[in-house]
Fold:
Amino acid sequence: MAAGFLLVVAGADTVQRSAFAPLPWIAGLPYALLVASLLYINQFPDRAADRASGKLHWVARLQPAVAAWGYGLMLLLAALALLGGVWGGTLPDVALIALAALLPAVAAWRQLRRFAAMPEYLAPAIRKTLLAAHAQPVLLAAILLLSAEHS
Structure:
């Protein structure tokens, strides 16, 4: 899932530059993982119907409490991707501020772990995931635009 969204970011940059650049791949990875987490958490309300129709994605295959950990893994990978971009020198140190946008998703993960088997209670968690998936790339893009290091 995440690979497709990363290709949107990096592919658009490559087409516009007419050349490959590592920055959109590094900056786009946390975004791609957050979009994947949004699609993932949206599978919980449809779990029973998906199982009945034979759509056996991970949320449908695993018990809800176990499947909730997949969401947490995606959040961890998004945070590590951003940290790796900074530690590797592709992103400026100030880009760490974009980690703050993951806070709503962390709150959503807590809610998901609590209500994974009761999808009727997951609407707030889904909205928080949506917020994080929008806020993180917007915040990171603003940081990169304002950063003299990456102008």
Notes: The CA atoms of residues 10 and 25 lie 5 Å apart. The chain has seven helices and no strands. The mean pLDDT is 91.
